[in-house]
């Protein structure tokens, strides 16, 4: 029987007077169970020791009836304190001792969530199938988890069935079920899956909240994926109006204004999208613009970035032309005291939210003053101590520590490397990344063999590479003399000819983590190869700082097999080309974050206009905004997060590595319970 039907039957049995006799039988049966009425001998168990119908019996029965609640409270307390093992044991005890109690379905749900975290998927499904048959406070969560569990088994139809059933229930989690169903479909859209998906939903116009979520989900996909989804829809598909509206938005962001106009005009023919389409086709009039403060380094040593950041904000305004926003600019250069005064000036001008600044100390000062004035602020600096000043502080940045943790997870869990070395620049960034990587490796039971930090201004990395390997100094000197030439420091140049047995250097590690710039990797890779740190014996691991065109322009033979990560390359390249089309320059990483800040605010105002919650309450409430480099959302602590992809150097260029079940959750790091796989990009390597 489908879980929804079971759920409705449970509600019907609970509340219908026609079933009062059934309820009476259940009550009598339950009382007999808890009274310990058994024809068998006393085995010393908790039930067999209950005496007959006396005052003491009643007292003990009442005590037993509340024992499941006490156990549930203890389990929840243990779970909140981080003792998941103890919590799981208590949940299991409730299920075994009190299978018919009101606490049992909730315990099954929470134990199933723990089992999923431990990879015990089949056990979780068994518990959740039982849990979804009953009405209890966590039944919505049970449906969500049941879909996730089936998704782990690649049983997409059962996963979608669970979320589709939840979406039809009158529960707070119903809209979440709808979102998961959409995300699952968008990730695996084919002609066959489209038929399955459409069979699970009513063939009627979508309700307002459903239409709004569909538009949001379509907005955070790539343009290519939305085009594919549209091509798969029949003419009567209830998804089509919102998809066409989203198509137009993707077209304008990619720089194709003519196509955007055509698609928006098409969207005016449908009652569901006509109003939003008209907003985009006509300039908003008689509307009070929403005031946003933008703190830029107009003076000082970072002033050369200001124009690039301002251009990014202006592009966001053009891409979201239907949302009236006014930008008020303030200079963020100078002292922290100057930043404080700049925030005060923006507040006096009626600004509703501040974006920036980029420097650490000025961002921290600005954040503190914004808290004092009860103004939300989205800083463009990743340092975590900024957020400690109070609530309504959001940090929109590419957090480097998270990249380090992801690479550690990939190395230990996916590649099963055991011994890893670190070669990093002797800088704040280098030591931050090395520390975060080493901590995660050790937490995953890996081992950091050794770490070394090089002078970031040096073109020769030999001293630090030699510190990583075991070698005979005399053999190295002999090889250098025989080469009669300087070791090439550019990978496009070949190494001097030599015999393999002439070099005794050897690495006692499986991988080398290199959190440094692309131009330095071009020098490090051939020098490391000289000392036998090369694929396939040793895999080089990198970060988003590797992802520069200069590193891919040739001479990548020493990088073959190396792996690095970054956000969606297709979306980032699309943004870069559209940006260059307007300003004849490439956007910097900080410009990308500036664009995202304005774009997030515009999307919040759109959501509110389309019947959603107040824009500020949704800043942490919405799971996913459309950013220049892919989805972006904010955690409860105010930190931004973006999904990452893994890339590998191959024989012909760089290829995208499709994530395994082990890594896809940490790559996406989503607040939702579903793990959406990254769409595999087209690559030059076959």
Describe this structure in words.
The protein is α/β, with parallel strands linked by helices and 686 residues long. The chain folds into three domains: 3-166, Serine Threonine Protein Phosphatase 5, Tetratricopeptide repeat, CATH 1.25.40; 290-397 and 571-642, Response regulator (Rossmann fold), CATH 3.40.50.2300; 400-566, Rossmann fold (3-Layer(aba) Sandwich). It is built from 27 helices and 15 strands. The chain has a five-stranded parallel sheet with strand order 2-1-3-4-5, sandwiched between helices. α18 links the parallel β3 (353-355) and β4. α8 packs antiparallel against α9, α9 packs parallel to α11 (208-219) and α16 packs parallel to α26 (589-609).
From the spread of the alpha carbons, the general shape counts as globular
Helix vs. strand class: alpha/beta
The spatial strand order of the largest sheet comes to: 2-1-3-4-5
Give the count of helical stretches: 27
How are the SSEs ordered, and which strands pair?
Elements: H1 3-15, H2 20-35, H3 55-80, H4 84-97, H5 103-117, H6 121-131, H7 139-152, H8 156-167, H9 174-187, H10 191-199, H11 208-219, H12 223-232, H13 240-253, H14 257-267, H15 274-281, E1 290-296, H16 306-319, E2 325-331, H17 336-348, E3 353-355, H18 360-372, E4 377-379, E5 393-395, H19 400-414, E6 419-425, H20 428-443, E7 447-454, H21 462-466, H22 473-483, E8 511-513, H23 518-530, E9 539-541, H24 549-552, E10 563-566, H25 569-583, H26 589-609, E11 625-627, E12 630-634, E13 640-641, E14 645-649, E15 654-657, H27 664-668
Parallel strand pairs: 1-2, 1-3, 3-4, 4-5, 6-7, 6-8, 8-9
Antiparallel strand pairs: 10-14, 11-12, 12-13, 14-15
Helix pairs in contact: 3-4, 4-5, 5-6, 5-7, 6-7, 7-8, 8-9, 9-11, 11-13, 12-13, 13-14, 14-15, 16-26, 17-18, 19-20
């Amino acid at each position: 029987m489908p879980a929804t039907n079971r759920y409705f039957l449970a509600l019907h049995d609970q509340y219908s007077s026609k079933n009062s006799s059934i309820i009476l039988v259940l009550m009598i049966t339950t009382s007999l169970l808890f009274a310990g009425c058994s024809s068998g001998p006393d085995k010393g168990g908790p039930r067999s020791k209950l005496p007959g119908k006396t005052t003491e019996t009643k007292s003990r029965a009442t005590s037993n009836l509340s024992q499941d609640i006490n156990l549930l409270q203890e389990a929840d307390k243990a779970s909140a304190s981080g003792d998941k093992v103890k919590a799981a044991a208590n949940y299991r005890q409730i299920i075994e001792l009190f299978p018919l109690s009101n606490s049992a379905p909730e315990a099954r749900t929470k134990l199933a969530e723990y089992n999923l975290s431990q990879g015990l998927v089949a056990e979780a499904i068994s518990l959740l199938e039982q849990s979804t048959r009953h009405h209890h406070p966590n039944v919505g969560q049970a449906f969500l988890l049941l879909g996730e569990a089936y998704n782990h088994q690649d049983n997409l139809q059962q996963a979608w069935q669970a979320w589709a059933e939840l979406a039809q229930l009158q529960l707070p989690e119903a809209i979440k079920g709808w979102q998961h169903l959409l995300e699952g479909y968008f990730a695996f859209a084919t002609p066959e899956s489209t038929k399955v998906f459409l069979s699970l939903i009513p063939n009627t116009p979508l309700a307002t909240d459903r239409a709004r979520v569909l538009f949001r989900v379509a907005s955070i996909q790539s343009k290519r994926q939305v085009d594919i989804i549209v091509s798969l829809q029949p003419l009567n598909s209830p998804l089509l109006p919102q998809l066409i509206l989203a198509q137009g938005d993707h077209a304008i962001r990619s720089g194709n204004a003519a196509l955007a106009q055509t698609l928006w005009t098409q969207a005016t023919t449908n009652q569901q999208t006509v109003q939003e389409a008209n907003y985009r086709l006509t300039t908003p009039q008689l509307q009070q613009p929403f005031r946003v403060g933008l703190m830029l380094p107009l003076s000082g040593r970072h002033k050369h970035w200001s124009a690039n950041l301002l251009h990014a904000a202006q592009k966001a305004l053009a891409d979201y032309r239907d949302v009236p926003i006014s930008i008020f600019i303030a200079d963020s250069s100078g002292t922290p005291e100057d930043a404080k005064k700049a925030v005060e000036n923006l507040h006096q001008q009626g600004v509703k939210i501040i974006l920036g600044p980029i420097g650490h100390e000025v961002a921290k000062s600005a954040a503190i003053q914004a808290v004092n004035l009860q103004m939300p602020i989205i800083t463009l600096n990743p340092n975590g101590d900024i957020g400690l000043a109070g609530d309504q502080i959001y940090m929109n940045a590419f957090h480097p520590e998270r990249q380090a943790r992801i690479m550690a997870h990939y190395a230990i869990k996916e590649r099963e490397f055991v011994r890893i070395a670190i070669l990093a620049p002797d800088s704040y960034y280098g030591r931050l990344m090395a520390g975060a990587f080493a901590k995660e490796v050790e937490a995953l039971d890996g081992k950091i063999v050794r770490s070394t930090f090089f002078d970031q201004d040096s073109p020769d990395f030999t001293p630090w590479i030699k510190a990583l390997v075991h070698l005979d100094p005399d053999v190295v000197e002999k090889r250098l003399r025989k080469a009669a030439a300087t070791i090439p420091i550019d990978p496009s140049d070949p190494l001097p000819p030599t015999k393999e047995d002439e070099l005794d250097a050897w690495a006692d590690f499986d991988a080398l983590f290199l959190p440094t710039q692309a131009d330095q990797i071009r020098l490090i890779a051939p020098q490391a190869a000289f000392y036998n740190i090369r694929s396939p014996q040793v895999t080089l691991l990198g970060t988003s700082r590797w992802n520069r065109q200069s590193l891919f322009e040739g001479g990548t033979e020493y990088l073959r097999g190396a792996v690095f990560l970054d956000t969606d390359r297709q979306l980032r390249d699309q943004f870069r080309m559209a940006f260059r089309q307007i300003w004849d320059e490439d956007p910097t990483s900080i410009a990308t974050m500036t664009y995202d800040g304005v774009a997030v605010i515009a999307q919040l105002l759109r959501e509110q206009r389309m019947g959603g919650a107040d824009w500020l309450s949704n800043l942490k409430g919405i799971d996913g905004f459309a950013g220049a480099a892919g989805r972006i959302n904010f955690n409860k602590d105010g930190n931004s997060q973006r999904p990452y992809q893994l890339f590998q150097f191959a024989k012909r260029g760089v290829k995208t590595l499709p994530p395994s079940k082990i890594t896809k959750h940490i790559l996406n790091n989503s607040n939702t319970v579903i793990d959406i796989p990254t769409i595999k990009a087209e690559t030059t390597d076959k």
